[in-house]
What does this fold into?
Amino acid sequence: MADEVVSYGVGVLAVVRAARPADVPAVTGWVGAGNYRHQDNVRISAVLRSWEDRFGALLVVMTESTLLLSVAYPPTTFKEAEQVAAEHFAFCPDQHDPQDMAGTVYTPRSYGRTIRKARHWRFWWD
It folds into this structure.
C-alpha cells in the first residue's frame, strides 16, 4: 500500500477557506459518506483533525464518495496500527469490506497490517 500509486483521473482543484485541511468536509458541506450521509461533517472533520495532529494525515483528495489522506507519520508498530484500524472502521463502516475482486473482508488486525507504515489512507463509502 505504501508504494501504490493512486490516480483519480482528471479532477478539479478547489481553494477552500478553512483553517486546516481537516476542516474542508465541514466547510464545504461534503455529502460523500454514501449510505451514511447522516454522518455529521463536523464530526468527520474532528476525526480528521485528530489524525492530522497525531499522524500528520492531511486530506488531499475529496470526491463524491472518497477521502484520500497523505500520512506523514503512519503507525509503525503492529499494536498501534491495529488500534488505528479500529478507528478507521468506526469512521468509515465500509472500510472493512473494500469490495475488491478477491472478496477480502478485513479485521482490525489484518487491516492494521495494511496501514502500518502506509503513506496514504483511502476511505470510500458505498
